[in-house]
Design brief:
The chain has 154 residues and is an alpha+beta fold. The protein is built from three helices and seven strands; from the N terminus they run βααββββββα.
Length: 154
Amino acid sequence: MLPLVTVRTEMIIDAPIQVCFDLARNIDVHTQTVWRHTKERAVAGTINGLINEGETVTFQATHFFIRQKLTSKITEMKSPYYFIDEMMNGAFKSLRHEHLFEERNGMTLMKDILVFEAPFGMIGKVAERFVLKKYMKRFLEHRNFRLKILAENL
C-alpha cells in the first residue's frame, strides 16, 4: 500500500502567536483568504467566527470545475499552539490538517501539515501524486500568505 500524501508549509508572520492562531481558526477569515475562483463559503456547522474543539464546519466550494462540500471537525486544540481538523465527509477518502504555531522572538512560525488520500483506487493515487499534492500546496500557500498580510496589518 502506498503512503498517504503529505503537504507541508511554513511561514513566518510578524504578529503575536495568539493573533495568528485565532485568524487561522476564524471561519470568516478562511473564506476571505482562499482563492476567489473557488467561491468557498461556510454552509453548515460553525459558519462564522472562531471554531473550537469538537465543532464542525461544512464548506462549499468549486474545485476542478466541480461544486463540492467538505465537512471538517476540530478534533484537537491547544491554544495558541495547535489545532487539528479532520474531514468527516467530502471528496477525499481521508484528510487531516494540523495547524501548528510557534513563537519566535515576537513573531510566529505557522506550519501546516496536510495528510490526505484521494478516492478511486489507483486512479486516485495517480491524481494525488501528479495533481492534488501540488494543487493543495499552492492552495495552502496562497491562504497562508493572505493570512500573513491580515495578521501583520492588525
